Protein backbone atom coordinates (compact mmCIF):
# COMPACT_ATOMS: atom_id res chain seq x y z
CA UNK A 1 0.00 0.00 0.00
CA UNK A 2 1.36 3.42 -0.92
CA UNK A 3 2.36 5.82 1.88
CA UNK A 4 0.01 8.36 0.36
CA UNK A 5 -2.94 5.96 0.64
CA UNK A 6 -5.67 7.30 2.87
CA UNK A 7 -9.09 6.28 4.02
CA UNK A 8 -11.78 7.08 1.40
CA UNK A 9 -13.66 10.29 1.98
CA UNK A 10 -17.12 9.80 3.43
CA UNK A 11 -20.06 11.90 4.54
CA UNK A 12 -18.66 12.28 8.03
CA UNK A 13 -15.00 12.39 7.05
CA UNK A 14 -12.57 14.90 8.51
CA UNK A 15 -12.56 16.67 5.14
CA UNK A 16 -16.17 17.72 5.63
CA UNK A 17 -15.36 18.85 9.17
CA UNK A 18 -12.45 21.00 8.02
CA UNK A 19 -14.47 22.89 5.43
CA UNK A 20 -18.21 23.31 5.56
CA UNK A 21 -19.63 24.96 2.44
CA UNK A 22 -23.03 26.58 2.72
CA UNK A 23 -25.15 25.46 -0.26
CA UNK A 24 -28.38 26.93 1.03
CA UNK A 25 -27.16 30.45 1.49
CA UNK A 26 -24.45 31.62 -0.89
CA UNK A 27 -22.40 34.62 0.18
CA UNK A 28 -22.08 36.93 -2.78
CA UNK A 29 -20.51 39.92 -1.09
CA UNK A 30 -17.49 40.16 1.18
CA UNK A 31 -19.45 42.55 3.44
CA UNK A 32 -21.91 39.79 4.35
CA UNK A 33 -19.25 37.45 5.78
CA UNK A 34 -16.74 37.38 8.58
CA UNK A 35 -13.01 37.83 8.17
CA UNK A 36 -12.18 34.17 7.50
CA UNK A 37 -15.13 33.84 5.11
CA UNK A 38 -14.00 36.93 3.21
CA UNK A 39 -10.49 35.52 2.82
CA UNK A 40 -11.79 32.14 1.67
CA UNK A 41 -14.22 33.83 -0.74
CA UNK A 42 -11.39 35.71 -2.43
CA UNK A 43 -9.39 32.49 -2.74
CA UNK A 44 -12.44 30.62 -4.03
CA UNK A 45 -12.87 33.16 -6.84
CA UNK A 46 -9.60 31.96 -8.38
CA UNK A 47 -9.71 28.25 -7.53
CA UNK A 48 -11.97 25.74 -5.87
CA UNK A 49 -10.98 25.40 -2.20
CA UNK A 50 -12.82 22.10 -1.98
CA UNK A 51 -10.87 20.76 -4.94
CA UNK A 52 -7.60 21.86 -3.32
CA UNK A 53 -8.57 20.10 -0.10
CA UNK A 54 -9.41 16.91 -2.00
CA UNK A 55 -6.03 17.01 -3.73
CA UNK A 56 -3.89 18.06 -0.79
CA UNK A 57 -5.89 16.43 2.02
CA UNK A 58 -4.22 12.98 1.72
CA UNK A 59 -0.79 14.60 1.43
CA UNK A 60 -1.36 16.74 4.51
CA UNK A 61 -2.59 13.69 6.42
CA UNK A 62 0.56 11.77 5.48
CA UNK A 63 2.77 14.69 6.62
CA UNK A 64 0.95 14.84 9.96
CA UNK A 65 1.41 11.10 10.48
CA UNK A 66 5.09 11.47 9.56
CA UNK A 67 5.49 14.25 12.13
CA UNK A 68 3.84 12.10 14.79
CA UNK A 69 6.18 9.13 14.26
CA UNK A 70 9.34 11.18 13.58
CA UNK A 71 10.60 10.77 17.15
CA UNK A 72 10.24 6.97 16.84
CA UNK A 73 12.28 6.92 13.63
CA UNK A 74 14.94 9.11 15.26
CA UNK A 75 15.06 6.90 18.36
CA UNK A 76 15.26 3.77 16.18
CA UNK A 77 18.25 5.12 14.27
CA UNK A 78 19.98 6.18 17.49
CA UNK A 79 19.36 2.76 19.01
CA UNK A 80 20.80 0.95 15.97
CA UNK A 81 23.92 3.14 15.99
CA UNK A 82 24.53 2.80 19.75
CA UNK A 83 22.81 -0.50 20.51
CA UNK A 84 25.32 -1.82 23.07
CA UNK A 85 25.53 1.51 24.91
CA UNK A 86 21.74 1.83 25.01
CA UNK A 87 21.39 -1.73 26.32
CA UNK A 88 23.96 -1.03 29.05
CA UNK A 89 22.13 2.14 30.11
CA UNK A 90 18.80 0.31 30.29
CA UNK A 91 20.38 -2.43 32.40
CA UNK A 92 22.01 0.09 34.75
CA UNK A 93 19.29 2.74 35.12
CA UNK A 94 15.80 1.32 34.73
CA UNK A 95 13.67 -1.31 36.38
CA UNK A 96 15.72 -4.13 34.84
CA UNK A 97 18.53 -3.49 37.30
CA UNK A 98 16.31 -4.99 40.03
CA UNK A 99 15.89 -8.33 38.23
CA UNK A 100 18.33 -11.12 37.48
CA UNK A 101 20.57 -11.02 34.39
CA UNK A 102 19.82 -7.36 33.56
CA UNK A 103 22.38 -7.30 30.73
CA UNK A 104 20.73 -10.19 28.86
CA UNK A 105 17.19 -8.88 29.44
CA UNK A 106 18.15 -5.36 28.38
CA UNK A 107 19.38 -6.68 25.01
CA UNK A 108 16.09 -8.50 24.41
CA UNK A 109 13.91 -5.60 25.56
CA UNK A 110 15.85 -3.07 23.51
CA UNK A 111 15.61 -5.26 20.40
CA UNK A 112 11.85 -5.59 20.90
CA UNK A 113 11.55 -1.84 21.38
CA UNK A 114 13.60 -1.16 18.27
CA UNK A 115 11.33 -3.37 16.17
CA UNK A 116 8.18 -1.91 17.74
CA UNK A 117 9.25 1.66 16.94
CA UNK A 118 10.58 1.10 13.44
CA UNK A 119 7.99 -1.38 12.16
CA UNK A 120 5.12 0.37 13.94
CA UNK A 121 6.07 3.73 12.42
CA UNK A 122 6.31 2.25 8.93
CA UNK A 123 2.90 0.62 9.33
CA UNK A 124 1.33 3.91 10.40
CA UNK A 125 2.81 5.71 7.40
CA UNK A 126 1.65 2.99 5.01
CA UNK A 127 -1.69 2.48 6.82
CA UNK A 128 -0.94 -1.23 7.25
CA UNK A 129 -2.21 -3.01 10.38
CA UNK A 130 -2.99 0.23 12.29
CA UNK A 131 -4.30 -1.75 15.25
CA UNK A 132 -0.94 -3.49 15.77
CA UNK A 133 1.08 -0.36 14.95
CA UNK A 134 -0.64 1.97 17.40
CA UNK A 135 -0.60 -0.64 20.19
CA UNK A 136 3.11 -1.29 19.65
CA UNK A 137 4.04 2.41 19.77
CA UNK A 138 1.81 3.17 22.76
CA UNK A 139 3.30 0.21 24.61
CA UNK A 140 6.84 1.39 23.95
CA UNK A 141 6.04 4.98 25.00
CA UNK A 142 4.69 3.64 28.30
CA UNK A 143 7.65 1.31 28.85
CA UNK A 144 10.41 3.76 27.90
CA UNK A 145 10.35 5.92 31.08
CA UNK A 146 10.45 2.78 33.21
CA UNK A 147 13.27 1.17 31.26
CA UNK A 148 15.42 4.31 31.17
CA UNK A 149 14.77 5.46 34.74
CA UNK A 150 13.06 8.63 33.44
CA UNK A 151 10.09 8.77 35.80
CA UNK A 152 11.71 11.71 37.60
CA UNK A 153 12.06 13.56 34.29
CA UNK A 154 8.67 15.27 34.33
CA UNK A 155 9.19 16.97 30.97
CA UNK A 156 9.86 13.61 29.32
CA UNK A 157 6.83 12.02 31.00
CA UNK A 158 4.59 14.93 29.95
CA UNK A 159 5.81 14.72 26.35
CA UNK A 160 5.20 10.96 26.44
CA UNK A 161 1.60 11.49 27.59
CA UNK A 162 1.04 13.93 24.73
CA UNK A 163 2.42 11.35 22.29
CA UNK A 164 0.08 8.71 23.70
CA UNK A 165 -2.80 11.15 23.24
CA UNK A 166 -1.89 11.67 19.59
CA UNK A 167 -1.57 7.92 18.98
CA UNK A 168 -4.95 7.30 20.60
CA UNK A 169 -6.59 9.92 18.38
CA UNK A 170 -4.97 8.41 15.31
CA UNK A 171 -6.06 4.95 16.42
CA UNK A 172 -9.66 6.11 16.91
CA UNK A 173 -9.67 7.56 13.40
CA UNK A 174 -8.03 4.62 11.61
CA UNK A 175 -10.12 1.99 13.39
CA UNK A 176 -13.40 3.94 13.48
CA UNK A 177 -15.05 1.63 10.94
CA UNK A 178 -13.97 -1.50 12.83
CA UNK A 179 -14.49 -0.39 16.41
CA UNK A 180 -17.62 -1.12 18.40
CA UNK A 181 -20.15 1.67 18.78
CA UNK A 182 -18.83 4.34 21.12
CA UNK A 183 -15.38 2.79 21.54
CA UNK A 184 -13.67 5.08 19.06
CA UNK A 185 -15.38 8.14 20.58
CA UNK A 186 -14.10 7.29 24.06
CA UNK A 187 -10.63 6.57 22.70
CA UNK A 188 -10.61 9.93 20.92
CA UNK A 189 -11.79 11.69 24.09
CA UNK A 190 -9.01 10.13 26.20
CA UNK A 191 -6.45 11.02 23.55
CA UNK A 192 -7.69 14.62 23.40
CA UNK A 193 -7.48 14.97 27.19
CA UNK A 194 -3.89 13.69 27.17
CA UNK A 195 -2.73 16.10 24.43
CA UNK A 196 -2.22 19.16 26.71
CA UNK A 197 0.09 17.26 29.10
CA UNK A 198 3.27 18.76 27.61
CA UNK A 199 1.81 22.27 27.84
CA UNK A 200 0.66 21.78 31.41
CA UNK A 201 4.28 20.96 32.25
CA UNK A 202 5.42 24.13 30.47
CA UNK A 203 2.76 26.05 32.39
CA UNK A 204 4.31 24.75 35.61
CA UNK A 205 7.73 25.97 34.43
CA UNK A 206 6.33 29.43 33.71
CA UNK A 207 4.50 29.38 37.04
CA UNK A 208 7.75 28.87 38.93
CA UNK A 209 9.39 31.63 36.86
CA UNK A 210 6.49 34.06 37.11
CA UNK A 211 6.73 34.39 40.89
CA UNK A 212 10.49 34.70 41.00
CA UNK A 213 11.67 38.32 41.07
CA UNK A 214 15.35 39.00 41.61
CA UNK A 215 16.05 41.34 44.48
CA UNK A 216 17.83 44.45 43.26
CA UNK A 217 18.18 48.12 44.11
CA UNK A 218 18.69 49.08 40.46
CA UNK A 219 15.49 50.49 38.94
CA UNK A 220 16.39 49.33 35.42
CA UNK A 221 16.99 45.77 36.53
CA UNK A 222 13.76 45.87 38.52
CA UNK A 223 11.78 46.92 35.43
CA UNK A 224 13.47 44.18 33.42
CA UNK A 225 12.59 41.59 36.05
CA UNK A 226 9.04 42.94 36.25
CA UNK A 227 8.62 42.71 32.46
CA UNK A 228 9.78 39.08 32.53
CA UNK A 229 7.25 38.47 35.30
CA UNK A 230 4.44 39.95 33.19
CA UNK A 231 5.45 37.90 30.11
CA UNK A 232 5.71 34.67 32.11
CA UNK A 233 2.32 35.31 33.71
CA UNK A 234 0.71 35.97 30.32
CA UNK A 235 2.21 32.80 28.81
CA UNK A 236 1.13 30.83 31.89
CA UNK A 237 -2.48 32.02 31.56
CA UNK A 238 -2.46 31.35 27.82
CA UNK A 239 -1.15 27.80 28.27
CA UNK A 240 -3.68 27.00 30.99
CA UNK A 241 -6.62 28.34 28.98
CA UNK A 242 -5.43 26.64 25.80
CA UNK A 243 -4.93 23.32 27.59
CA UNK A 244 -8.39 23.53 29.16
CA UNK A 245 -10.05 24.28 25.81
CA UNK A 246 -8.25 21.39 24.10
CA UNK A 247 -9.11 18.93 26.88
CA UNK A 248 -12.80 19.88 26.94
CA UNK A 249 -13.15 20.08 23.16
CA UNK A 250 -14.21 23.74 23.01
CA UNK A 251 -12.62 25.60 20.07
CA UNK A 252 -10.07 22.79 20.32
CA UNK A 253 -9.19 22.53 16.62
CA UNK A 254 -8.22 26.20 16.33
CA UNK A 255 -6.32 26.16 19.63
CA UNK A 256 -4.50 22.94 18.72
CA UNK A 257 -3.49 24.41 15.36
CA UNK A 258 -1.91 27.50 16.92
CA UNK A 259 -0.26 25.45 19.69
CA UNK A 260 1.27 23.19 17.03
CA UNK A 261 2.68 26.19 15.14
CA UNK A 262 4.00 27.68 18.39
CA UNK A 263 5.60 24.37 19.32
CA UNK A 264 7.34 24.00 15.94
CA UNK A 265 8.77 27.53 16.25
CA UNK A 266 9.81 26.81 19.84
CA UNK A 267 11.73 23.60 19.09
CA UNK A 268 13.42 25.21 16.06
CA UNK A 269 14.59 27.99 18.39
CA UNK A 270 15.57 25.80 21.34
CA UNK A 271 17.03 22.78 19.49
CA UNK A 272 18.34 23.81 16.02
CA UNK A 273 20.52 20.72 15.70
CA UNK A 274 20.93 21.31 11.95
CA UNK A 275 23.06 24.38 12.77
CA UNK A 276 25.41 22.54 15.12
CA UNK A 277 27.00 19.98 12.78
CA UNK A 278 28.76 19.95 9.43
CA UNK A 279 30.96 17.69 7.32
CA UNK A 280 34.63 18.64 7.08
CA UNK A 281 37.58 16.53 5.89
CA UNK A 282 35.44 13.40 5.80
CA UNK A 283 34.43 13.80 9.47
CA UNK A 284 31.48 15.28 11.27
CA UNK A 285 32.32 18.44 13.21
CA UNK A 286 30.26 19.78 16.09
CA UNK A 287 29.91 23.39 17.12
CA UNK A 288 32.02 23.90 20.25
CA UNK A 289 29.76 26.78 21.29
CA UNK A 290 26.63 24.65 20.98
CA UNK A 291 24.08 25.63 23.61
CA UNK A 292 23.25 23.17 26.36
CA UNK A 293 19.65 21.94 25.91
CA UNK A 294 17.22 23.63 28.25
CA UNK A 295 15.38 20.40 28.94
CA UNK A 296 14.56 18.32 31.97
CA UNK A 297 16.96 15.54 32.89
CA UNK A 298 16.47 12.68 35.34
CA UNK A 299 18.28 12.58 38.64
CA UNK A 300 21.96 11.71 38.38
CA UNK A 301 22.49 13.26 34.94
CA UNK A 302 24.53 16.39 34.39
CA UNK A 303 24.45 17.50 30.77
CA UNK A 304 27.47 19.74 31.40
CA UNK A 305 29.61 16.61 31.70
CA UNK A 306 28.49 15.29 28.29
CA UNK A 307 30.72 15.28 25.23
CA UNK A 308 29.83 17.42 22.24
CA UNK A 309 28.23 14.57 20.28
CA UNK A 310 26.08 13.66 23.29
CA UNK A 311 24.84 17.25 23.64
CA UNK A 312 24.10 17.25 19.91
CA UNK A 313 22.15 14.00 20.28
CA UNK A 314 20.06 15.61 23.01
CA UNK A 315 19.20 18.49 20.69
CA UNK A 316 18.21 16.03 17.96
CA UNK A 317 16.13 13.97 20.37
CA UNK A 318 14.18 16.89 21.82
CA UNK A 319 13.70 18.45 18.37
CA UNK A 320 11.97 15.36 16.99
CA UNK A 321 10.08 14.83 20.26
CA UNK A 322 8.70 18.36 19.90
CA UNK A 323 7.93 17.74 16.23
CA UNK A 324 5.93 14.65 17.19
CA UNK A 325 4.09 16.71 19.79
CA UNK A 326 3.09 19.16 17.05
CA UNK A 327 1.98 16.23 14.91
CA UNK A 328 -0.25 15.00 17.74
CA UNK A 329 -1.86 18.44 18.00
CA UNK A 330 -2.37 18.63 14.24
CA UNK A 331 -4.23 15.32 14.41
CA UNK A 332 -6.79 17.07 16.61
CA UNK A 333 -6.90 19.92 14.11
CA UNK A 334 -7.51 17.48 11.27
CA UNK A 335 -9.87 14.92 12.80
CA UNK A 336 -11.71 17.11 15.29
CA UNK A 337 -12.35 16.55 19.03
CA UNK A 338 -14.70 13.60 18.53
CA UNK A 339 -18.28 12.93 19.56
CA UNK A 340 -17.67 13.40 23.30
CA UNK A 341 -16.77 17.09 23.31
CA UNK A 342 -18.31 20.45 24.16
CA UNK A 343 -18.09 21.50 20.50
CA UNK A 344 -17.89 18.36 18.41
CA UNK A 345 -18.99 20.09 15.17
CA UNK A 346 -16.36 22.85 15.19
CA UNK A 347 -15.45 24.01 11.67
CA UNK A 348 -11.84 25.05 11.14
CA UNK A 349 -12.12 26.58 7.64
CA UNK A 350 -15.61 27.91 6.90
CA UNK A 351 -15.39 27.97 3.11
CA UNK A 352 -17.98 29.92 1.17
CA UNK A 353 -18.84 27.56 -1.68
CA UNK A 354 -19.94 28.50 -5.16
CA UNK A 355 -23.26 27.35 -6.52
CA UNK A 356 -21.66 25.10 -9.14
CA UNK A 357 -19.63 23.24 -6.48
Could you characterize what this model shows?
By secondary structure, the chain is an all-alpha fold. It has one domain (14-335). It contains twelve helices and two strands; from the N terminus they run H-H-H-H-H-H-H-H-H-H-H-E-E-H. The protein has helices at 14-18, 35-46, 49-81, 83-93, 102-126, 130-147, 154-174, 183-194, 197-210, 219-248, 252-270, 308-335; strands at 277-280, 283-286. A hairpin with a 2-residue loop joins strand 1 (277-280) and strand 2 (283-286). Helix 3 (49-81) packs antiparallel against helix 12 (308-335) and helix 7 (154-174) packs parallel to helix 12. The longest helix is centred in the N-terminal third of the chain and has 33 residues, at 49-81. The two termini are 31 Å apart.
Amino acid sequence: MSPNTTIPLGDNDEFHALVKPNHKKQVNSSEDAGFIQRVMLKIDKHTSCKLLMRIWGPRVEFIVRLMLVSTFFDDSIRTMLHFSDEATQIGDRGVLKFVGSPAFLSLIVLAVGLLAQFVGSLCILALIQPDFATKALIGWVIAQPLLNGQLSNFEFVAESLTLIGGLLMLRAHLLSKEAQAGTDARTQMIGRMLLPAAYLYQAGVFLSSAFTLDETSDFGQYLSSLSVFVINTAVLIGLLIGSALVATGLKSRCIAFFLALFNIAFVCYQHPFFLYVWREGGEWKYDEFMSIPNAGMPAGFDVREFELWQIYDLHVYYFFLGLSTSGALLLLTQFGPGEIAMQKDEVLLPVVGRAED
